[in-house]
Amino acid sequence: KAIAEKRSVRKLYVEQLVKRGDISLEVAEQALIDYQSKLQVALDDTRQNAPGNVKAAKPPAPIGVLPHVDTSVDKETIERIFYQLTNYPEGFHPHPKLVRQFEARQKAYETDGDFEWGVGEALAFGSLLIEGFDVRLAGEDSRRGTFSHRHASLVDVETEETFLPLRGVPGISGNFWVYDSLLSEYAALGFEYGYAHSNRNALVMWEGQFGDFVNGAQIVIDQYIVAAEDKWKQANGLVMLLPHGFEGQGPEHSSARIERFLQMCAEDNIQVVNATTAAQYFHVLRRQLIRDVRKPLVIFTPKQPLRMKESRSHINEFTTGSFQEVLDDPFVTDKSAVKRIVMCSGKVAWDAMNERVKRNAPVAVIRVEQLYPFPLDQINEMLTRYPNAREIVWLQEEPENMGPWNFVEHLIWRVKDRGYDLRHAARVASGSPATGSKAIHDQEHADLMDETFLGL
């Protein structure tokens, strides 16, 4: 009632103008009549020319997995970047513990030709900088890396001066920035999304300290990252790095909520990746800019596998090829002997392979490295490589109501029509992502492996 009795803003403003002598009351009234007349003419015209019944066309079918692009880098460039990582300025004093870590890293390469996960990332960054792209990484503890694996910014232990090795790579023409952001996922992710929108030729990344913390930025994800292209035809190449993996660290440090991202996948709106090797990570980062397509990229990054031997990659995997959406089991020598195929995504693949060895089970482990767009054709082709396998188990470390299972089942269930038995192995459905007890975690893991290899 109080609002209804209040005089309108227009009337109050007109009275002010009249009192100041800026206009007369007659002029004000005539302006109102003219404006209302224009509105009425527009309304009448709209009604007279109203279109008939219109049936909107359905959106085009999604393209799905795109053709591969060559993202390899020659050996000379790889080594130029790698050795720059420890090419300290004169008089620089790195932390003694880091010196030992870097020496072991260099020995691994010079002895076996292998690179760990953090080096694979640095090689991707450095090669893009050489090719003229900018690289920008911001996140929670991102300069060092939450798990002390990156060290993109080194600090002199005596002078506290900083040194960013990638800025000194010979031949770079792009800019490299790395920042420790404030602990507001909402604000930081929103800013990086805007930066990626304004600079198409930059690899722009936001990293959560743990993937679990991404829920603090859910509004940005819902309103922009997954929906902006559909709403406004707005392409964006932002990369989200979300550490994910069940390792007994509790419900706030285990899950980046894969299921939530997959639920929002449609119309090729985003890319969802759970890479398992340093080379795969290298190639998917480079693909983000080498390919002339800009889609948000969500990468569920590892924690424990950052230093696992299994996730290391030989230099040949960097100097050839591209990102592979599906990886076959590299340790199966007789494919005709395989009776069961275990499909999975992420770290749990290494658990399954190790368990397979312990049990001497006739199992092949296929890794689905890209969950969206889903590589169904590649999976179907890979199944044909195992002529005597009639069982497929989808294995995930997440609870049954979380993780990729419900998304994947909807896409692969037709394998049953071809005579396959399809089931899944997962933790018990839960309201919380993970237990807070390491002992219970280990028990759940043992149960998960038993369920996966049941009957073999």
Structure description:
- By secondary structure, the chain is an alpha/beta fold.
- The protein folds into three domains: 2-48, no CATH class; 75-319, 3-Layer(aba) Sandwich (Rossmann fold), CATH 3.40.50.12470; 326-452, Multifunctional 2-oxoglutarate metabolism enzyme, C-terminal domain (Rossmann fold, 3-Layer(aba) Sandwich).
- It has 16 helices and 16 strands.
- The strands form four sheets. It has a seven-stranded mixed sheet with strand order 5-2-6-7-9-8-14, with helices on both faces. The protein has a five-stranded mixed sheet with strand order 11-13-12-15-16, sandwiched between helices. The protein has a two-stranded antiparallel ribbon with strand order 1-10.
- It is globular, with a radius of gyration of 28 Å.
- The mean pLDDT is 96.
Computed Rg = 28 Å
% residues in beta strands: 15-25%
Strand arrangement in the largest pleated sheet? 5-2-6-7-9-8-14
Which CATH C-level class of the largest domain is it?
Answer: Alpha Beta
| Unreliable stretches covering 5 or more consecutive residues | none
CATH topology of the largest domain: Rossmann fold
Residues in helix, %:
25-40%
Secondary-structure content class: alpha/beta
Count of DSSP H/I helices = 16
